């Protein structure tokens, strides 16, 4: 085959009225007598390739006839503008080269059940909607890191294997670690990233985290990715401003760069366009009062006593009252992690906040000002029944150059589910790990 210009579908507009070669896979094929329509995808986009029998050799037409769904091939042809085409262009085919023929591809255009699709997740990611979701995921990750980098943050990688629980829970995945006893898959990088904060001032970690709770809700994964910034000399109010700027920048970048993927997912863009600072702020006390007043508006939303944590129905009710994400701040200290700074004016509540996404998607960020006083932190560790020896290194951060500091963690999958308008979090990661899902 003669290769003139080799390009990708995403750059096809640069080759209008020229002859190019595209390499990819057949998304679908339609035959109409002397015409064969091949929908080719190459990972960067899709384009319709038209094979007209009178314009090609018999061998070329035969090759086109043999192609099946997900067969790999190279197609050479002339790029022609066509406003009716999804990409704005079509390819008038001149040559077809088969790389590999696929037989009996299991995922056909017909409807399949979720269990079947999850069993074939390694193939399902090729479909249009899954492809769009994972491109949005990639954009969210890039946007988050690039925005933080531009603000002067340093990426500070933290360990996945740890000797203790960061938040004092027993819901951990453990393994034997040589002769040193038990090690655990990290729930968060936060404690370790605080050491980076004391070195660089503004840092973040990004990586997989693990939760062993036996949860089956659509909002939970046992393995998920989290980005966690930490800032020295920052207090609670500073932390909230950083979060709303961060989230808004990510959403606006996705709107700008991934509009076609959002269209494929049939996402309503108007709620996303409203994701601009400032975000509303509601105290835990105000949220409890709101739930008592309006709990009947959401099924399963029961009134709460002070000191109880919110469930999904409560978060949905609260979020419905606002047209953009909303902060719930100053939760009772007793239901939050040991390292959260108590409010000096009201020690029974912590200087912390959860950020609830709009449209009922629930919490996407949890953050707080951290305790910087070594004596108070040691007392809190003891109150939680934790070993002082296990957290000796963490206490060192307060003994040597302590400063007020704050940070937060954003779950990538929850953010992607909200931005893309996808109801179930399992589709926002290439291979979800859930209570009953470890394959493929």
Automatic annotation (TrEMBL):
One of its GO terms (molecular function) is nucleic acid binding. InterPro entries: Aa-tRNA-synt_II, aa-tRNA-synth_II, aa-tRNA-synth_II/BPL/LPL, Asn-tRNA-ligase, Asp/Asn-tRNA-synth_IIb, NA-bd_OB-fold, NA-bd_OB_tRNA. It is an enzyme of class 6 (ligase). The keyword Membrane does not apply. It is found in: Cytoplasm. It catalyses: tRNA(Asn) + L-asparagine + ATP = L-asparaginyl-tRNA(Asn) + AMP + diphosphate + H(+). Keywords: Aminoacyl-tRNA synthetase, ATP-binding, Cytoplasm, Ligase, Nucleotide-binding, Protein biosynthesis. CDD domains: AsxRS_core (cd00776). The keyword Membrane does not apply. Residues 134-440 form the Aminoacyl-transfer RNA synthetases class-II family profile domain. It comes from the Bacteria. PROSITE patterns: AA_TRNA_LIGASE_II. GO terms for biological process: asparaginyl-tRNA aminoacylation. One of its GO terms (cellular component) is cytoplasm. Its EC number is 6.1.1.22. HAMAP family: Asn_tRNA_synth. NCBIfam families: asnS, PRK03932.1, PRK05159.1. Homodimer. Belongs to the class-II aminoacyl-tRNA synthetase family. This is Asparagine--tRNA ligase. It comes from Oscillochloris trichoides DG-6. The gene is asnS.
